[in-house]
Amino acid sequence: MPAAVQSVNPSSVSIRHPFASRQGQVVALALLVLLLVLIAAPLIFLLRASLTPPGELPFFVDTYSLENYVSVLTSPDLLDLILNTLKYALGSVIFGVTLASGIAWLVERTDIPFQTTIRILMYSWMAVPTIVLAFGWILLANPGSGIVNLLLREFFNVTGSPISIYSLPAMTLVTGLALVPTAFAMIAGLLRNMDPQLESAGAVHGATTFSVFQSVTFPLLIPGLFSVGILLVMAMVQAFDFPLVLGLTAKVHVLSTRIYLLAHSDISRPDYSLPATFGIFFLVLAVALMFAYFRTVRMGERFRVVTGKAFRPRRFSLNGWRYPAATVVGLYFALMLLPLLILLWTSFQPFYQAPSIHALTQLTLANFVSVFEESQILRAISNTVILVMCSATLVMVLSVMIAWYAVRSKGRIGKYLELLAFAPMAIPPVVLAIAVLLIYLRTPLYGTIWLIVLAHVSVYIAFGTRTMHAALLQLHQELENAALVCGANWFVMLRRIVFPLLRPQILNGWLWVAAHSARDITFPLFLITATNVVVASELWVLWETPEIPTASALSMVLVLGLLVLVVPVQILASRSMAREAH
Hints:
With 582 residues, the protein is an all-alpha fold. The protein has a domain at 39-74 and 265-303. It has helices at 22-50, 67-73, 78-109, 115-125, 130-141, 147-156, 168-192, 197-204, 209-237, 241-250, 255-263, 273-300, 322-347, 357-360, 366-371, 375-408, 412-422, 429-440, 449-473, 477-485, 490-501, 503-519, 522-526, 535-544, 548-581.
């Protein structure tokens, strides 16, 4: 065979790997420096601010003091803050995971009807901003004018306000309901990947369906459920949306809202040293939970029951209970739809009022006209588009490059890149927001939308990197070596080989970051100025003004935009999953 047409095995050819080239090393070092600037530098500055004497800005003093730590540790309400935070996090997670586990089991392990529809609704519901849901729950269960209280007084002759949204139990309940879609996505995977052979063995030996679930299925799920629970507790300890909207009025403070209040006091000269100190304590708590999560995951390795053999999860027949079970799941979606429906109603009203025949005669589009005519709201919408497009694109581009170096490199730089990229998982958003505020307060970036873009890249890079890390592990290196053998440099290889092969995972990651960037309230509110307002922060401003009908209209615009972005992809993914199941 002529030499010109001989086949070449890329794995047998000696090539100069990108890590060995000067260009590859420069790019790796640049990524490392970028992560240090995005993540490590703000935290170092946060620690420096916590050691600043009270009343002083960290830019102008060179002295150190432990006075802030003493003040926090001796604070009379510190214990209440910690207990409220833990009660809120644990209560909402226990309720949400329990409800999500039941729905996930029905969808993944039984013959309940409308499985694809339930999956689409669950995954799409994660795009609905929690701040919007919080506004809706207030309109439903406000003690004075909430629809539920009005109906109870009207039809049941109830006096007073039997239901109030402004309490820790109520805040925990509605947060648990909002947490169900996220918990469902995690738990459904556990149930879908469980090898049914052990369950079949129990059934062969005469055990009932309940006995098999109690003795086999549930014990095997415990490690996975526990790890999911700890991960969600971490998220709820760091939660800011519901505690901000509901907790401030209820005077139920948690660590995240206390830091916000300290950083936004009404004094003429802000004192960032005390919120920075609370941020350090908050960071320590989050890191402790992160270590507990990793320990649980390692323990769960002993309970793996998924083998390399192909299998199809066993589905239990519900017989006559199929449609009653679907009705119960439908009731959950109906309950979650109520906050959006009351906001939709209010968006067409000149002022907030309960639904009635008289109110129907006052329907108006004026609020939506205001949304698309008022300069401040238009600025918020345009800033949100910039924020979503730029943050999602930058996160996924950087995530692919960082994950590629972390997976393919055998040196220390790759390990450092992976460690730094994962670090934001242990950093509460309010803590990182304070850190970003402090380090960029006296720079040209402060007050611009680009600072919020930078902050979102910092916090979401952890998700993007972990997603791409898992995808790259399934991509054989010979494909990249073939490109290098043909003379391509590392950039051409990434652009022509890696990016196209990872396109589905990149698209899913991009949509996740885009949806979370649009619905985030933490960074926009901590970094808010007149020029960098986005839809989420403008919603809070309108609600506090209060311009409730306009806020309701803007909420509907935000929800519709996110659903248009997310739902089509979820429909395609759910249909593909249904085809694979059959």
